[in-house]
Design a protein that fits this description.
This protein has about 675 residues and is α/β, with parallel strands linked by helices. The protein has 23 helices and 22 strands. The chain folds into four domains: about 5-40 and about 150-230, no CATH class; about 45-145, Beta Barrel (OB fold (Dihydrolipoamide Acetyltransferase, E2P)), CATH 2.40.50.140; about 235-435, Rossmann fold (3-Layer(aba) Sandwich); about 445-595, P-loop containing nucleotide triphosphate hydrolases (Rossmann fold, 3-Layer(aba) Sandwich). α21 packs across α22. The structure holds adenosine-5'-diphosphate and magnesium ion (MG). Adenosine-5'-diphosphate (ADP) binds near residues 258, 285, 288, 289 and 539.
Length: about 675
C-alpha cells in the first residue's frame, strides 16, 4: 500500500494531466473518488474461442498472433486491415481511424482480441471489426468471466479498458479504511470495506459483485433515511382546502372519457385536495395508462381554486411536449400556461419567470429547474412530478425550506411493491391505475436473433411507406462491446433509403434533440436510432415499431417501458426484441414480454428470474444512484438500513461517530444534487 484515499488521481500510472482533467470533470479527484465510482452494470465474456468457431453478429474473445498488415483494399480512408493467426486460421481484423494501433503492434507477438464478428466482403467470409486489444503477456483486462461496466461519458475519451486499469492500480495500492462498525457489518452480513471494493470492481462472479454492493448501499440507504427523517412532514399537516367540483367541467371537455381507473385515482386525489390536509400522493400505472391526464385534471382543479399549478417532467423534451400537448386544454378555459427549462433562451426564460412571479401564469410546465432558487412563485399550490420519483422527496424538502407547502402528486410507471413504496416515500398515499384506455391494442412482440435484420427492416419499410414511425434502440454506453448508435445508424441509413433515418443520443444538446424529435414526431424522419433516452414518456402517436437491439442487456421492466412508446395511436404496434445471446436464460427472460403486457406482472417475473442474472436490471444506462431503483433490488437491506441508522446514531464509539458525520454530509449532498441544474 503506497497511497491513501485522499491522494490525487495523478499519482496513478497512465493518468497524465489530460486524463486527470477528464476524470476531474466526472467528479473524480482522488483515489478514493475513483474507487467510489461504482460500475453501473456487469457483463460476462465467454471463454476464448478459435476464429473458426465465431458466429457472425456475436462478440468473441480470441488469442492470436499478429502477422502483419494486410492489403489496403478499397473502402473508406482510415481503414486498416491487419492479419492475425490463432494457430489454426489466419484472419483479418479491421480498424477504423486508429493508425496508432498498427504502430503499437509487434509482429509475431501474441494478443488478446475482443470484438464483434461481421460478414466479410467475400460471401461466407468473416471479419473481426475494431476489437479491444491487449498484449498476451501483459493482459489484465480481457479475460473471460464477469467484468464491470462504468458509465463513462463518451465525449471525454476515457475507455473502459484504461479506466479499469486505473481502478486495478488503485485497488492494489490504496490503503482502505474500514468505516462501518464491526457490530453492524456482522449483523447485516456486510463484507469488509476492502473486500467490498474488490468485489464490486473485480468480481469473480455476479453473486460476489452483488454481495459487495451491500456495503456501499448500506451507507447510501442510511444517508437517504437520514435525509427523509429530517424532511419528514407531519401527515396531519394542514393543506389548502380546495373545491373539487371543477373537475367535472374539465373532464367533460376532453375528447374521450376517463377510464374507470383514472376516475378512481382522480377522485382519491380530489378528496385529498379538499380534505384540508396536504396531499402527498403517488400515482402508479403502466406506461400509457393515462397518468398524465389525471395530473392535468388535478392541476386544472388547483388553478380554478386560484393557486398556481406546476407540471414537472423529467426531461426538457418531455416538458416541451407536455406544454405543447396540454396547454390547449387549459387555454380553452382562459387559463394562462407557460414553460421553463434549463437551456431556454435567456429572453424567453425571463419572460416566463416574470409570468410566474407576477401570478399571470396559472399552469407552469417545465423540468426540475422549476424548483431552483431563481424561480419565484406568486402562489404555488399544486405540483405534479412525472416519471421521476427520485425528485419527489427532495424537492418537497426544498420547497418546505422556502416556506411553500403545495399539494403534491408524484407519478411513476415503475412498479414498486407497495411496502417498499411506503418506506421510500414514508408519508405517501398510493393510487393505482390498472386499466388501459379503451381501444388500445396490445403491442405484438417478436423475438429476433441478430441474423434477422433483413426481416426487421422489411417491417420498418412497410411502416414507413404508410407514413408511420419506428424506433431502433441500442444499449450502448460506449461502443466497445455492444451495438451502438453510430454503427446501427450507418447500417439503417443504407438499409432503409429512401426513407429518412435519424439518430439521437443523450449527449446531444437540447436544441438538436428538439429538432430531431420534432422531425420524427411530425416531420419526414421515419426512423429514429437512439439510446434509451427515449424511454421516459415520449409520446409519438404515429410510432408503431420499437426495435430493441441487444435486448438481453435490458431489464424486462425497462423493455416494457420502451414497448409502451409504440402503438399509442390507432395503428397496431410491434416490438422486436433482438438478441445475439444464444443463452437459454436470456431467451426465457425475453419471452416473458412476448406473453404478458401487465407491467406489475413483468416486474415480478423479472425479479424472480433475475436472481443471479443481470443485477442492475432497472438501470437506465449511464445513470446510477436512484435510490428507488436500488431499493427495489435490495429490499431487505433497504428496510434493515433504517434500523441500522438508528443503532449508529445511538452508538458513541469513534468509528460510529465518524460514519454518522459522513452520512450526514452524504445526505446533504444527495438531497441537494438532485435539486440542482
Ligand atoms: P402515461 O402518462 O400513463 O404514460 P398518458 O397520460 O401519456 O399516459 O396517456 C397515454 C396516451 O393515451 C396519450 O396519448 C393520451 O392522450 C391517451 N389517453 C389518456 N387517457 C385516455 C382515455 N381515457 N381514453 C383515451 N385515450 C387516453
Ligand atoms: Mg406520462
Amino acid at each position: 500500500m503506497t497511497y491513501f484515499a485522499n491522494d490525487d488521481i495523478s499519482v496513478l500510472r497512465g493518468v497524465g494531466s489530460k486524463k486527470a482533467d477528464a476524470l476531474r470533470h466526472m467528479g473524480i479527484n482522488t483515489l478514493g473518488d475513483l474507487l467510489d465510482f461504482l460500475p453501473v452494470d456487469y457483463r460476462e465474456r465467454e471463454d476464448f474461442v478459435k476464429f473458426s468457431e465465431t458466429v457472425e453478429g456475436a462478440y468473441a474473445l480470441i488469442k492470436a498472433v499478429y502477422t502483419g498488415e494486410g492489403v489496403r483494399g478499397y473502402g473508406r480512408a482510415g481503414k486498416w486491415t491487419l492479419n492475425f493467426f490463432d494457430g489454426e486460421t489466419a484472419f483479418p481484423v479491421v480498424f477504423y481511424n486508429q493508425p496508432y494501433i498498427k504502430t503499437s503492434l509487434k509482429e509475431n507477438s501474441e494478443y488478446r482480441l475482443y470484438g464483434r464478428i461481421y460478414p466479410g466482403l467475400k460471401k461466407g467470409s468473416k471479419v473481426l471489426i475494431a476489437p479491444v486489444i491487449e498484449r498476451e503477456d501483459k493482459a489484465q483486462y480481457l479475460k473471460s468471466g464477469v467484468y464491470p461496466v462504468y458509465a463513462l461519458p463518451v465525449k471525454n475519451g476515457i475507455k473502459q479498458k484504461e479506466f479499469s486499469s486505473w481502478i486495478s492500480q488503485a485497488l492494489k495500492e490504496t490503503a482502505i479504511t474500514e468505516d462501518i462498525p464491526l457490530k453492524i457489518s456482522l449483523d447485516y452480513a456486510l463484507m469488509s470495506a476492502a473486500d467490498s471494493y474488490k468485489a464490486v470492481h473485480e468480481p469473480e462472479s455476479l453473486k460476489q459483485a452483488r454481495d459487495g454492493m451491500r456495503y456501499f448501499l448500506m451507507k447510501k440507504f442510511m444517508a437517504f433515511h437520514y435525509g427523509i427523517n429530517i424532511s419528514k412532514s407531519d401527515r396531519e399537516e394542514k393543506g389548502r382546502k380546495m373545491d373539487p367540483s371543477y373537475s367535472a367541467e374539465f373532464t367533460a371537455s376532453l375528447p374521450f372519457e376517463l377510464t374507470g381507473a383514472q376516475q378512481r385515482a382522480l377522485s382519491e386525489i380530489l378528496s385529498d385536495m379538499s380534505s384540508g390536509r396536504r396531499m402527498n400522493r403517488l400515482v402508479q400505472g403502466d406506461v400509457g395508462s393515462g397518468k398524465t391526464f389525471v395530473a392535468v385534471a388535478a392541476a386544472y382543479v388547483a388553478a380554478r381554486n386560484n393557486v398556481q399549478a406546476v407540471i414537472c417532467a423529467p426531461t426538457e423534451i418531455l416538458a416541451r411536449q407536455h406544454f405543447e400537448k396540454y396547454s390547449r386544454y387549459f387555454e380553452h378555459f382562459g387559463m394562462r400556461c407557460t414553460v421553463v427549462y434549463g437551456t431556454m433562451k435567456k429572453k424567453e426564460k425571463d419572460a416566463a419567470l416574470k409570468l410566474i412571479s407576477s401570478g399571470e401564469a396559472d399552469i407552469i410546465f417545465g423540468t426540475h429547474v422549476l424548483f431552483s432558487s431563481g424561480v419565484e412563485y406568486k402562489d404555488l399550490g399544486f405540483i405534479s412530478i412525472d416519471e421521476q420519483h427520485r425528485y419527489g422527496v427532495a424537492q418537497r424538502a426544498l420547497l418546505e425550506n422556502k416556506g411553500i407547502s403545495p399539494h403534491m402528486l408524484v407519478m411513476s410507471a415503475t412498479p414498486i411493491p407497495r411496502t417498499l413504496a411506503l418506506s421510500i416515500y414514508r408519508d405517501l398515499d398510493i393510487s393505482i391505475i390498472d386499466e388501459m384506455p379503451k381501444g388500445r391494442k396490445p403491442v405484438i412482440t417478436f423475438l429476433f436473433n441478430s441474423t434477422q435484420d433483413a426481416k426487421a427492416y422489411s417491417y420498418v419499410r412497410q411502416a414507413a411507406a404508410k407514413g408511420l414511425k419506428s424506433f431502433i434502440v441500442c444499449p450502448a454506453i460506449d461502443s466497445e462491446d455492444m451495438e451502438n448508435v453510430n454503427e446501427v445508424y450507418d447500417r439503417a441509413v443504407k438499409a432503409l433509403a429512401p426513407y429518412k433515418t435519424d439518430f439521437m443520443t443523450g449527449e446531444m444538446n437540447e436544441e438538436k434533440k428538439k429538432e430531431v424529435m420534432s422531425s420524427f414526431a411530425e416531420g419526414d424522419t421515419a426512423v429514429l436510432v437512439s439510446t434509451t433516452i427515449i424511454e421516459v414518456g415520449i409520446d409519438v402517436p404515429k410510432a408503431v415499431i420499437m426495435w430493441v437491439k441487444g435486448a438481453e442487456r435490458f431489464g424486462l421492466s425497462q423493455l416494457h417501458q420502451l414497448r409502451g412508446r409504440v402503438g399509442r395511436g390507432d395503428d397496431q404496434g410491434y416490438c422486436f426484441l433482438q438478441t445475439d445471446s444464444g443463452k437459454s436464460e436470456a431467451l426465457t427472460r425475453l419471452s416473458v414480454l412476448k406473453n404478458t403486457t401487465d407491467g406489475f406482472e413483468i416486474a415480478r417475473r423479472d425479479m424472480a428470474l433475475r436472481g443471479s442474472g443481470d443485477i442492475f436490471g432497472y438501470r437506465q444506462s449511464g445513470k446510477s444512484g436512484d435510490i428507488s431503483e436500488y431499493a427495489v433490488q435490495y429490499p431487505d437491506l433497504f428496510m434493515a438500513s433504517r434500523e441500522a441508522l438508528d443503532r449508529l446514531s445511538e452508538s458513541d464509539d469513534e468509528r460510529s461517530a465518524a460514519l454518522f458525520d459522513r452520512i450526514r454530509e452524504e445526505s446533504k449532498k444527495y438531497f441537494s444534487s438532485i435539486t440542482m441544474n
